[in-house]
Design a protein that fits this description.
Strand content: under 5%
Mean pLDDT: 93
Number of strands: 0
Protein name: Transmembrane protein
Helix content: over 70%
Low-confidence stretches: none
Organism: Bacteroides oleiciplenus YIT 12058
Radius of gyration: 19 Å
Largest sheet: none
Keywords: Membrane, Transmembrane, Transmembrane helix
Structural class: mainly alpha
Length: 152
Protein backbone atom coordinates (compact mmCIF):
# COMPACT_ATOMS: atom_id res chain seq x y z
CA UNK A 1 0.00 0.00 0.00
CA UNK A 2 2.90 2.31 0.78
CA UNK A 3 4.12 1.97 -2.82
CA UNK A 4 0.69 2.90 -4.17
CA UNK A 5 0.62 6.01 -2.00
CA UNK A 6 4.08 7.05 -3.18
CA UNK A 7 3.11 6.37 -6.81
CA UNK A 8 -0.05 8.49 -6.56
CA UNK A 9 1.89 11.32 -4.90
CA UNK A 10 4.63 11.15 -7.56
CA UNK A 11 2.06 11.27 -10.38
CA UNK A 12 0.27 14.24 -8.83
CA UNK A 13 3.53 16.09 -8.23
CA UNK A 14 4.59 15.60 -11.86
CA UNK A 15 1.16 16.82 -13.00
CA UNK A 16 1.51 19.90 -10.79
CA UNK A 17 4.99 20.64 -12.14
CA UNK A 18 3.66 20.24 -15.69
CA UNK A 19 0.82 22.60 -14.86
CA UNK A 20 3.36 25.25 -13.80
CA UNK A 21 5.71 24.60 -16.73
CA UNK A 22 2.91 25.21 -19.22
CA UNK A 23 2.59 28.97 -18.47
CA UNK A 24 6.37 29.31 -18.56
CA UNK A 25 6.38 27.80 -22.06
CA UNK A 26 3.45 30.00 -23.10
CA UNK A 27 5.21 33.12 -21.83
CA UNK A 28 8.44 32.24 -23.63
CA UNK A 29 6.59 31.53 -26.89
CA UNK A 30 4.48 34.68 -26.49
CA UNK A 31 7.41 36.92 -25.70
CA UNK A 32 9.44 35.65 -28.63
CA UNK A 33 6.54 37.10 -30.56
CA UNK A 34 5.54 35.81 -33.90
CA UNK A 35 2.93 37.49 -36.07
CA UNK A 36 0.11 35.94 -34.01
CA UNK A 37 0.79 38.11 -30.94
CA UNK A 38 -1.72 40.96 -30.94
CA UNK A 39 -3.58 39.52 -33.91
CA UNK A 40 -6.99 40.61 -32.57
CA UNK A 41 -5.90 43.66 -30.60
CA UNK A 42 -7.73 46.07 -32.90
CA UNK A 43 -10.99 44.11 -32.86
CA UNK A 44 -12.84 45.64 -29.92
CA UNK A 45 -15.85 43.34 -30.18
CA UNK A 46 -13.74 40.16 -30.21
CA UNK A 47 -11.61 41.48 -27.35
CA UNK A 48 -14.67 42.23 -25.23
CA UNK A 49 -16.16 38.81 -25.96
CA UNK A 50 -12.90 36.98 -25.18
CA UNK A 51 -12.32 38.96 -21.97
CA UNK A 52 -15.86 38.30 -20.77
CA UNK A 53 -15.60 34.61 -21.58
CA UNK A 54 -12.26 34.32 -19.77
CA UNK A 55 -13.56 36.12 -16.69
CA UNK A 56 -16.60 33.85 -16.59
CA UNK A 57 -14.39 30.80 -17.06
CA UNK A 58 -12.27 31.82 -14.07
CA UNK A 59 -15.33 32.68 -12.00
CA UNK A 60 -16.75 29.21 -12.67
CA UNK A 61 -13.69 26.93 -12.81
CA UNK A 62 -11.76 28.16 -9.77
CA UNK A 63 -14.51 27.73 -7.15
CA UNK A 64 -15.78 24.54 -8.80
CA UNK A 65 -12.32 22.98 -8.85
CA UNK A 66 -11.78 23.68 -5.17
CA UNK A 67 -15.27 22.98 -3.84
CA UNK A 68 -16.02 19.99 -6.08
CA UNK A 69 -12.93 18.18 -4.85
CA UNK A 70 -13.87 18.77 -1.21
CA UNK A 71 -17.40 17.57 -1.93
CA UNK A 72 -16.21 14.43 -3.73
CA UNK A 73 -13.69 13.76 -0.96
CA UNK A 74 -16.35 13.68 1.74
CA UNK A 75 -19.19 12.11 -0.25
CA UNK A 76 -17.43 9.54 -2.42
CA UNK A 77 -13.78 8.93 -1.55
CA UNK A 78 -14.17 8.59 2.21
CA UNK A 79 -16.71 5.78 1.77
CA UNK A 80 -14.62 3.32 -0.26
CA UNK A 81 -11.68 1.00 0.44
CA UNK A 82 -8.15 2.41 0.49
CA UNK A 83 -7.01 1.20 -2.98
CA UNK A 84 -10.19 2.57 -4.55
CA UNK A 85 -9.84 5.79 -2.53
CA UNK A 86 -6.32 6.27 -3.89
CA UNK A 87 -7.58 5.78 -7.45
CA UNK A 88 -10.45 8.21 -6.96
CA UNK A 89 -8.20 10.73 -5.21
CA UNK A 90 -5.80 10.65 -8.16
CA UNK A 91 -8.63 10.93 -10.70
CA UNK A 92 -10.36 13.86 -9.02
CA UNK A 93 -7.05 15.65 -8.41
CA UNK A 94 -6.41 15.46 -12.14
CA UNK A 95 -9.90 16.78 -12.88
CA UNK A 96 -9.25 19.66 -10.47
CA UNK A 97 -6.00 20.56 -12.25
CA UNK A 98 -7.75 20.34 -15.63
CA UNK A 99 -10.42 22.75 -14.40
CA UNK A 100 -7.66 25.19 -13.43
CA UNK A 101 -5.78 24.68 -16.70
CA UNK A 102 -8.74 25.88 -18.80
CA UNK A 103 -8.88 29.47 -17.45
CA UNK A 104 -5.09 29.65 -17.32
CA UNK A 105 -4.79 28.76 -21.01
CA UNK A 106 -7.68 31.03 -21.96
CA UNK A 107 -6.15 33.88 -19.97
CA UNK A 108 -2.79 33.65 -21.68
CA UNK A 109 -4.47 33.29 -25.08
CA UNK A 110 -6.47 36.47 -24.47
CA UNK A 111 -3.37 38.23 -23.19
CA UNK A 112 -1.25 37.44 -26.22
CA UNK A 113 -3.88 37.45 -28.96
CA UNK A 114 -5.66 40.61 -27.82
CA UNK A 115 -2.94 42.26 -25.71
CA UNK A 116 -5.41 42.44 -22.83
CA UNK A 117 -4.19 42.64 -19.25
CA UNK A 118 -7.47 41.08 -18.10
CA UNK A 119 -6.37 37.82 -19.68
CA UNK A 120 -3.11 37.61 -17.78
CA UNK A 121 -4.92 38.56 -14.55
CA UNK A 122 -7.32 35.65 -15.05
CA UNK A 123 -4.41 33.32 -15.78
CA UNK A 124 -2.69 34.41 -12.57
CA UNK A 125 -5.89 33.85 -10.59
CA UNK A 126 -5.98 30.26 -11.86
CA UNK A 127 -2.28 29.81 -11.09
CA UNK A 128 -2.77 31.17 -7.59
CA UNK A 129 -5.73 28.85 -7.01
CA UNK A 130 -3.53 25.92 -7.97
CA UNK A 131 -1.43 26.60 -4.89
CA UNK A 132 -4.38 25.33 -2.85
CA UNK A 133 -3.98 22.01 -4.70
CA UNK A 134 -0.30 21.48 -3.90
CA UNK A 135 0.17 17.70 -3.77
CA UNK A 136 2.15 15.89 -1.11
CA UNK A 137 2.20 12.68 0.84
CA UNK A 138 1.25 14.38 4.10
CA UNK A 139 -1.73 16.06 2.49
CA UNK A 140 -2.88 12.82 0.85
CA UNK A 141 -2.62 10.95 4.16
CA UNK A 142 -4.52 13.70 5.97
CA UNK A 143 -7.31 13.93 3.38
CA UNK A 144 -7.71 10.15 3.14
CA UNK A 145 -7.32 9.67 6.91
CA UNK A 146 -4.33 7.33 6.59
CA UNK A 147 -1.96 7.00 9.55
CA UNK A 148 1.46 5.41 9.15
CA UNK A 149 0.81 3.28 12.25
CA UNK A 150 -2.26 1.73 10.60
CA UNK A 151 -0.20 0.75 7.56
CA UNK A 152 2.37 -1.23 9.56
Amino acid sequence: MEEQIKHVVACLKSLFIGFWLLPVILIVVGEIGEEWVGMYAADVRATYFAETLTILLVAICVPVSLKLFAWVLTRKIDKVSLPEALRLYSFWSKIRMLLLTLPMLAGFAVYYLMLSNKGVLCAFIALTASLFCLPGEGRLRKELHINKEEEA
